[in-house]
C-alpha cells in the first residue's frame, strides 16, 4: 500500500470509529498510533517510538509527552495527544513547554482528527505560536498528503521539512489575509489599486466609491475563474464520454430565454445564470475550508438553495432572485434559523462570508 492510500485509509477509519472513542487512550490506540505507523515507524519498537517520553521542565521532573519519535536515540518529533472531541487551542502551550526542553525540531498536537505541526521558524528553540501545517483527517487534501509524506521515516529530512514549513507558514498567513481582503477590502488595498487607475486626488468620497468597485471586481474575477474551471471540467467530461451510435435523428434542444441555463419541462423551475454566478461566489467563499465539490445547489420554485453534501438538512444559504427588482440572500445559524438579507448586487453576497463560513464549519465540526 502506498502512502497516499494509507493516509486515506486512516481518514476512513477516523470517520468510522471516532464516535465510539470515550477516552484519550482510546483515541491514541484507534486513531493516532495507526497514523504514526503510516509514517513508517514501528509503534511497538522503543528505539523508534517512545510512549510517555519524559521531558523535565525546569524544577518539574517526570513531565511526560505522549509520544517521541526517535532517530539515533535522539527525539526528532514530539506528539501530544488529546481526546478527539477536545479543542486543541486549549493545549498548545503544553506542547510549547515540552518543545523548549527537547532537541526535537518538530512537534505535533493532535486529537486524532486534527493534526497541528509546529517548529521554531521565528525564534530558535522556541516553538512558534502558530502551526505551519494543519491537517484535518476528515477533509484531507492531496497537497497535504504530500507534506505529510515528508515526515515519513523513509523521506525524513530536517532541512527539507524546514524549508517547506517556512513556505507553508507564510503562504497560509497570506491566504488568510487575502480572504479577508476579498470579503472586505481594506482602505490600504483600495487606495493602492485606485492609484493604478486614477490620476486625481483620492478623497474620502472617492475612496468609498472605489471600495465598492474593488469588492465588485474581486467578486467578478473569482466568479470568472470558478466558472472557467467548471466549464473546463464539463468539457473534459463530455470529451471522455463515448459516442453513442444511433440511427435516430437527435431531438432539437429546447430554446431557453436569455440568461436562463435550465428550465423544467413544466416551466415551474427556472435556473438563471445569475443564480449560478451566486452559487460560484459561495463556493469561492468556502474554497479554503472544504472541498467545494461538497457544495451543491438545488433549484426550487421560490428560491435557489445551496447545500452542504447535497443534504436538505444542511442548508448553507438561499438565493431569492426571482424578482426583477428586489433580491435577497438568506443565511442560516447553527439552529437552522433562516435570516433573509436584501442585496443590491451579486458582490453583496461577500458581506455574509462569515455567516456562510460559520455554518459550514458547524457542519464539519458536527461530524467530529
Question: Largest sheet, order of strands side by side?
Answer: 1-2-3-4-5-6
- Poorly predicted ranges (pLDDT <50, ≥5 residues)? none
> Tally the helices: what do you get?
9
List the quaternary state of the chains.
single chain
Backbone CA Rg: 25 Å
Question: Quick one: CATH class of the largest domain?
Answer: Alpha Beta
Overall domain count:
3
* SSE-based structural type: alpha+beta
Mean pLDDT rating:
85
User: How many β strands by DSSP?
Assistant: 13
The CATH architecture category of the largest domain equals Alpha-Beta Complex
Please outline the major beta sheet.
Answer: 6 strands, mixed
CATH topology of the largest domain: tt1808, chain A
- Shape label: globular
Amino acid at each position: 500500500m502506498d502512502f497516499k492510500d494509507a493516509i486515506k485509509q486512516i481518514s476512513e477509519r477516523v470517520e468510522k470509529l471516532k464516535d465510539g472513542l470515550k477516552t484519550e487512550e482510546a483515541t491514541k490506540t484507534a486513531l493516532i498510533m495507526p497514523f504514526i505507523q503510516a509514517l513508517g515507524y514501528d509503534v511497538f519498537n522503543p528505539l523508534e517510538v517512545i510512549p510517555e517520553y519524559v521531558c523535565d521542565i525546569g524544577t518539574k521532573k517526570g513531565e511526560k509527552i505522549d509520544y517521541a519519535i526517535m532517530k539515533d536515540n535522539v527525539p526528532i518529533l514530539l506528539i501530544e495527544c488529546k481526546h478527539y472531541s477536545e479543542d486543541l487551542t486549549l493545549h498548545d502551550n503544553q506542547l510549547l513547554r515540552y518543545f523548549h526542553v527537547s532537541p526535537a525540531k518538530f512537534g505535533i498536537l493532535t486529537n486524532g482528527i486534527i493534526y497541528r505541526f509546529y517548529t521554531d521558524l521565528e525564534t530558535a528553540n522556541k516553538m512558534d505560536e502558530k502551526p505551519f501545517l494543519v491537517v484535518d483527517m476528515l477533509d484531507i487534501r492531496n497537497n497535504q498528503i504530500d507534506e505529510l509524506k515528508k515526515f515519513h521515516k523513509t523521506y525524513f529530512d530536517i532541512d527539507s521539512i524546514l524549508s517547506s514549513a517556512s513556505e507553508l507558514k507564510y503562504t497560509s498567513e497570506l491566504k488568510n489575509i487575502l480572504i479577508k481582503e476579498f470579503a472586505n477590502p481594506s482602505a490600504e488595498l483600495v487606495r493602492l489599486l485606485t492609484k493604478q487607475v486614477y490620476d486625481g486626488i483620492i478623497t474620502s468620497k472617492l475612496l468609498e466609491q472605489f471600495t465598492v468597485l474593488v469588492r465588485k471586481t474581486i467578486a467578478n474575477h473569482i466568479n470568472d475563474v470558478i466558472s472557467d474551471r467548471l466549464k473546463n471540467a464539463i468539457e473534459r467530461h463530455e470529451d471522455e464520454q463515448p459516442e453513442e451510435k444511433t440511427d435516430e435523428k437527435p431531438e432539437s434542444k429546447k430554446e431557453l430565454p436569455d440568461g436562463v441555463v435550465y428550465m423544467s419541462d413544466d416551466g415551474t423551475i427556472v435556473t438563471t445564470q445569475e443564480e449560478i454566478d451566486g452559487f460560484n461566489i459561495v463556493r469561492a467563499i468556502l474554497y479554503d475550508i472544504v472541498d467545494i465539490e461538497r457544495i451543491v445547489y438545488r433549484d426550487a420554485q421560490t428560491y435557489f438553495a445551496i447545500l452542504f453534501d447535497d443534504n436538505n438538512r444542511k442548508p448553507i444559504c438561499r438565493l431569492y432572485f426571482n424578482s426583477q427588482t428586489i433580491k435577497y440572500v438568506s443565511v442560516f445559524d447553527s439552529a437552522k434559523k433562516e435570516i433573509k438579507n436584501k442585496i443590491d448586487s451579486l458582490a453583496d453576497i461577500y458581506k455574509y462570508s462569515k455567516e456562510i463560513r460559520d455554518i459550514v464549519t458547524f457542519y464539519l465540526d458536527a461530524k467530529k
